[in-house]
Design a protein that fits this description.
Elements (H helix, E strand, L loop, with lengths): L1 H7 L4 H32 L3 H6 L12 H5 L7 H32 L5 H10 L9 H10 L6 H25 L3 H9 L4 H12 L1 H17 L2 H6 L8 H10 L7 H30 L6
Length: 289
């Protein structure tokens, strides 16, 4: 009753003012983040003439899907580039999760010689600039005949995604009490059973966070795709956007460019909306024991 009376009691003026200031500040930041997305979608629905005449205008009197139809004639067509991006992102997510989950579990729940040193070395690879090792990566792909292939690009993305993913999964498994593992061992469960049927469901927010980061990084990555892919039919959506923005004779097709940006953004927005709950829980996994 005391707690209920405390909640129903009128709040001090200073507390109400602070809450109001927080809400107003959050609304201002939300507008700054949302407006570019709204502007891109609105411009993608403009007729070509309106988009070229005034690219900065938010809305137009007429709406058209002409910009999206023009994307079909950019290179091999936007659907080919979208398919390549989906295949690369799906492969990156699958391999990243498949490797980082058992690796994070091993670093979290097992003790072996050189464990700390090995983990530090894995984390140290995050400090290496990607641009500085482009030439060695290209030579490695050439040795294995994986240059200009989607599989080679997937392996590159997984390599650079793994340090962060292993770190996230180790933190996620650290938050799981060891008593659960000990109880499962007493019941005769194998390590594979413990990992798949006990630990993995509990650490699912961490897995979702790893999968989301792997998807977003591989979906939006541009430089590696530009360097390691030379076949136009294997290009990804970010490379398509560069071709659209270059235009004919240097003239930017603003309508088609915004349509391409909209096509690229939709999967990222939908994925974040679906997994945002797990994303927040996954980032804080292991923070409190």
């Amino acid at each position: 009753m005391e707690r209920l009376n405390h909640n129903l009691a009128p709040k001090p003026a200073s507390e109400r003012l602070g809450t109001l200031a927080f809400i107003l500040t959050a609304c201002v930041f939300a507008v700054f983040f949302v407006m570019p997305i709204v502007w891109s979608f609105a411009n993608s629905l403009k007729p070509a003439a309106a988009a070229l005449a005034d690219p900065a205008a938010l809305f137009s009197k007429a709406f058209s899907l002409e910009n999206y139809r023009r994307l079909e004639h950019v290179g091999a067509g936007w659907y080919v580039y979208a398919r390549n991006s989906v295949l690369i992102a799906a492969g990156t997510v699958a391999l990243t999760v498949l490797v980082s989950v058992p690796a994070g579990y091993g670093f979290s729940k097992f003790r072996f010689p050189g464990q700390s040193l090995l983990f530090v070395l894995i984390m140290a690879t995050m400090m290496i600039p990607f641009q500085s090792i482009l030439t060695p990566l290209f030579l490695i792909l050439k040795v294995f005949h994986l240059q200009n292939s989607l599989l080679g690009l997937v392996l590159i993305y997984v390599t650079f995604q793994l340090p962060f993913s292993v770190f996230m999964m180790r933190n996620a498994f650290d938050a799981v009490p060891k008593a659960l593992i000990e109880a499962a061992r007493i019941d005769g469960a194998s390590q594979a059973t413990i990992l798949c049927r006990i630990m993995l469901p509990i650490a699912l927010p961490g897995v979702a966070t790893v999968a989301m980061f792997a998807f977003l990084n591989s979906w939006n990555e541009f430089l590696a795709a530009l360097i390691f892919l030379s076949d136009q039919n294997k290009f990804t959506l970010p490379i398509m956007l560069v071709n659209v923005s270059s235009g004919i004779y240097g003239i930017i097709d603003w309508g088609a460019l915004q349509a391409g940006i909209a096509v690229t953004m939709v999967p990222c927005i939908l994925l974040f909306l679906l997994l945002q709950r797990y994303y927040v829980r996954g980032l804080t996994a292991g923070a409190v024991k």
